[in-house]
Write a structure and sequence with these properties.
By secondary structure, the chain is an alpha+beta fold. It has two domains: 78-256, 3-Layer(aba) Sandwich (NADH Oxidase), CATH 3.40.109; 312-507, 3-Layer(aba) Sandwich (NADH Oxidase). 30% of the residues lie in helices and 24% in strands. The chain contains 16 helices and 18 strands. It has a seven-stranded antiparallel beta sheet with strand order 1-6-5-4-7-9-8, with helices on both faces. Strand 2 (98-104) and strand 3 (107-112) form a beta hairpin. The longest helix is centred in the C-terminal third of the chain and has 23 residues, at 442-464. The termini are far apart.
């Protein structure tokens, strides 16, 4: 019997609760991997024209921290100034390119720029090219394996078609490049089944943030949206129904004005569809369709802090910006082996600020569409100058609000399904979604991608400082909630363990910091 959807948040909460891990759910799990159906992690358009990309820029000449800070300046108007093909090649490579290749007897493995759950890489990158030197206008697919572009749509009206399906038509019509991120569901479902929708969204967030930061490093601005007409935009890209779907859209270009009041923009109505399984039940409950109504464009929302009763631990306010962004991306890897040294407090403070701190002007990082419904908690195991315990990060004040003092290494190990690197980490970042702040099911989609973006900034800033980190999607949801004493309506969505690696000493010289 098909599951029915309504226009509220019940479906998102039902999906989230239905895909929680617990000891009971693991005991009842009869799923085993079918290696004969393992999905390919590269998409190919066999009949498409291939355009080779030039060598990418390997040094950004700007620190990771500075690129994050620059990306926090809100904009909503982009110029149509042309982008060079080298700039585009660099942004693409730093988003999802192969950063290391290892050859084994029966296979060749490509490590990618952005992290991915299980190295299954469900996110595919397309670009709508309007004004790039050396490229014809149209729609392209980024071929990661061959470091080239597939020219898949030469329709001169494609810009008009796309612009009618997003809130602000002007962005598509003027930006030299618009990135379109899709998810191929089975790549993640093959291993993670119904919980895979969470991973698809987190993975998309990883890629989005690396696009934004890479563009920022080259003085381009980005405007991000997760709002669009799902069915029509997927049809324009000829995606098979229920197999691949657009998740977010990012327009990139130069701008002079930081933020400009604009005319009315298009809004969208909920258009939920029925589904036969819990995975598509959630996705289909978040679908939108174009509305004839228009509304005034919105200014970025000011950051609001969650009210906490615990005492505050004030963090150092001088931040280490870290290594060159592109060098950082090219060497980023998930780390699971830690030294026993404590992380210096000023370094830990820098990771927190650049990952989720608030810009001096009162604005935070770009959001896919659900501003300010994420919470960031920290379980401190071994940070110099900070008592072990659980804390809530007050991003507006850049303080840690104490929840409970004590050593939580064993609890961290237990909540992370006995993944030893979590219990041994110097600290564990925990992200939750405030269910009471969600207005629609779509907000869950947005918040998961925002969590992926936050996790991506943690990955990059730790790497840039010579630390290590690893994202964790497999955990006992309710045990995590208990450790941080989360509210009854908070949904745990992502964990990131950080620690000191053997690479630490070589990256803490004055030359880097």
């Amino acid at each position: 019997m098909a599951l029915k959807n309504k226009n509220n948040t019940d479906q998102a909460k039902y999906y989230h609760n239905s895909t929680k891990h617990s000891l009971e759910s693991l005991r009842n799990n009869k799923h085993s991997l079918n290696w004969s159906t393992m999905p390919e992690v590269f998409k190919d358009y066999e009949n498409a024209v291939k355009i080779p990309l030039p060598a990418f820029q390997q040094q950004a000449n700007i620190s990771t921290g500075e690129s994050i800070e620059n990306s926090r300046k809100p904009v909503n108007v982009l110029s149509n100034e042309a982008m060079s093909l080298m700039d585009l090649a660099t942004i693409l490579h730093m988003t999802n390119g192969a950063t290391e290749i290892k050859h084994f007897p029966k296979m060749t493995y490509m490590f990618r720029a952005a992290p991915s759950a299980g190295a299954l890489y469900p996110t595919v990158t397309y670009i709508l090219v309007r004004n790039v030197k050396g490229l014809k206008p149209g729609i392209y697919h980024y071929n990661v394996k061959e470091e080239c572009l597939h020219f898949i749509n030469t329709d001169p009206d494609c810009f008009k078609s796309f612009s009618n399906l997003v809130p602000d038509a002007q962005l598509i019509e003027t930006a030299p490049v618009t990135f379109i991120y899709s998810s191929i569901f089975f790549r993640s479902q093959w291993k993670y089944r119904d919980r895979a929708y969470r991973y698809c969204l987190l993975d998309a967030g990883h890629l989005i943030v690396q696009t934004i930061l890479s563009a920022s490093a080259m003085n381009y601005n980005s405007v991000l949206t997760g709002e669009f007409d799902d069915e029509k935009i997927n049809n324009l890209l000829n995606f098979p129904i229920d197999e691949e779907a657009v998740m977010a859209i990012l327009s990139i270009g130069r701008t002079i004005l930081p933020f400009e009041k604009k005319n009315k923009v298009r809004i969208f109505d909920a258009a939920p569809k029925e589904a036969e399984d819990i995975f598509l039940f959630l996705h289909n409950s978040t679908i939108l369709k174009s509305s004839k109504e228009m509304t005034n464009s919105k200014a970025p929302k000011l950051i609001k802090s969650k009210d906490m009763n615990g005492s505050d631990h004030s963090l150092p306010s001088k931040f280490q910006k870290g290594d060159d962004l592109f060098k950082t991306i090219l060497r980023r890897r998930s780390k699971r082996k830690w030294l026993s040294n404590p992380i210096p407090e000023d370094m830990f403070s820098s990771v927190l600020y650049y990952s989720y701190g608030v810009h001096n002007e009162g604005f935070g990082d770009l959001s896919v569409g659900a501003d300010n419904i994420l919470n960031l908690y920290v379980v401190v195991h071994n940070i110099e100058g900070i008592d072990p315990g659980t804390y809530y990060y007050e991003r507006k004040k850049h303080d840690l609000a104490l929840i409970k003092k004590g050593f939580f290494n064993e609890k961290s190990l237990e909540m992370a399904m006995n993944q030893r690197f979590v219990g041994n980490a110097n600290a564990v970042f925990i992200m939750t979604i405030s269910g009471d702040k969600m207005k629609t099911n779509r907000d869950y989609r947005y918040a998961c991608m925002d969590a992926g973006m936050l996790g991506g900034r943690i990955y990059l800033q730790t790497t840039s400082l010579g630390l290590g980190s690893t994202g964790v999607g497999a955990y006992f949801d309710d045990k995590v909630s208990k450790v941080i004493e989360a509210g009854s309506d908070e949904m745990v969505i992502y964990l990131v363990a950080i620690g000191i690696t053997s690479h630490f000493k070589t990256l803490t010289s004055n030359d880097v910091l």
